[in-house]
Input
Amino acid sequence: MFGAYQLGAWEVLEEFLRPDLVIGTSIGSLHAWAIAGGASAAQLADLWYDPSLAHAVRWQVPFGLRQGLLQTDALEQRIRQLHGSFTPQRPVGIVANAYPFLRPHLFRDQEITWEHLAASCAVPLFLRQPQLGAHTYADGGLFDSLNVWAAFALGATHAVVVNCWKPTQPWLLDKSVGWLAARRRRAAKSENNSSENRVVLIEPSGSLGPIRQSIYWQQPLVDAWRQQGKSDALRNKQIICDMF
Output
């Protein structure tokens, strides 16, 4: 469901912004791959308004902790289709965290397979943790929902960042992961004080609601989160135009 918010933001941004490179984390990795391949907001809307997503979440008893509580077949099939539908036309990077210490790793351009996209979205305990080469990977936004460093690692000097992480519950996530994400947001905002790097942060002006709402597809929520993304992006439009 976080993807619906990003869709709304991209609907506004695509009208005037032509990024030189695109970075994605978690569900943002799917959008990064598609946008780097020239995807329009209308094409992304086709993805998020597919009612079959309502049946994509199925609970299971996992064989191991890294198998996940949710069946991933439908999600991974969707990721395969998206990966095969686009070829990057500009530099693209996605972030996933490598076990055992959950250190962030940046994958770039043609080395990115559909499994790398799945790894960036692989929330521990819930989704399957893919093994790529010698490492097993987890969700790239686990401790940093922004990963602005990845954009600068690829040579960016200015960045427009879309952040969706504003949960109200459960308490543990809000006070642990949410606290870390808030630290990263403050760090990103501080980049505005740098003479070399500048960042504009687009994020929900209010909470998007309980974290459980992000798991299940519901069209009224898609509409609401999409509209929220558009409103928040429009609020920052002039700042972005001035920056570039």
